[in-house]
């Protein structure tokens, strides 16, 4: 997960209380959430949903409340439903959601389970760990394309690109310009704007040498 900074002023279409997913709401959410699902961090989800973080269950105030609207992919929305309603809030200014849930990438494209671990024992962190574990480690799906298996493979590919760049940067046989280029790309890869950022950032966080090199770019 990654923290977002929500704008204070709500998109204009919400004031009419007719629809909560108008074009202005969608485009503002897309920008704020870096075009990623706030739960699994997949980019350009094939079926984007506007989600009510706190399930509205018919309550009109909750339904059109700008601060209650989140950008989520169809699969995560379907897994979450009303079953998980006490989660860490990625728009909160009080804590860093990234550091509260450890995400470790798979070692192969086919690994059937990846590590998702709560780093605190409060109720919200534990419930968020459960939901993310279900998202990444089950095959539950609402379309044939996106499954847990597909997500884990995509995460592995991202992690593999990261490792290739690390190898290039530390390869003494390479000319300086190639090493410099690798370092610049690594600095970009650890930004929260990247797909599956939590997995790459946790690798950096847990490795002293990488943390010295890239820690300042964990935004
Ligand atoms: Zn998702």
Strand and helix layout:
Elements: H1 23-32, E1 48-52, H2 60-63, E2 69-73, H3 74-80, H4 97-100, E3 101-104, E4 115-118, H5 123-137, H6 148-169, H7 176-189, H8 197-205, H9 208-214
Antiparallel strand pairs: 1-2, 3-4
Helix pairs in contact: 6-7
The structure holds zinc ion.
Zinc ion is lined by residues 37, 39-40, 42, 72-73, 75-76.
Distance between the ends: 13 Å
Number of helices: 9
Q: How many β-strand runs?
A: 4
Small molecules in complex: zinc ion
Radius of gyration over all CA atoms, rounded: 18 Å
Tell me the strand percentage band: 5-15%
Give the structural class: mainly alpha
- Give the SSE string: HEHEHHEEHHHHH
Q: Point out poorly predicted stretches.
A: none
What level of helicity do the residues show?
A: 40-55%
Q: How many strands, what sense, and barrel or not for the largest sheet?
A: 2 strands, antiparallel
Round the mean pLDDT to the nearest integer and report it.
94
Q: What order do the strands of the largest sheet run in, or round the barrel if closed? A: 1-2
Shape: globular
Describe the protein.
The chain has nine helices and four strands, in the order αβαβααββααααα. The protein has helices spanning 23-32, 60-63, 74-80, 97-100, 123-137, 148-169, 176-189, 197-205, 208-214; strands spanning 48-52, 69-73, 101-104, 115-118. The strands form two sheets. A two-stranded antiparallel sheet has the order 1-2. It has a two-stranded antiparallel ribbon with strand order 3-4. It starts with 22 loop residues before the first helix and ends in a 5-residue tail after the last helix. Bound molecules: zinc ion (ZN). Residues 37, 39-40, 42, 72-73, 75-76 line the site of zinc ion.
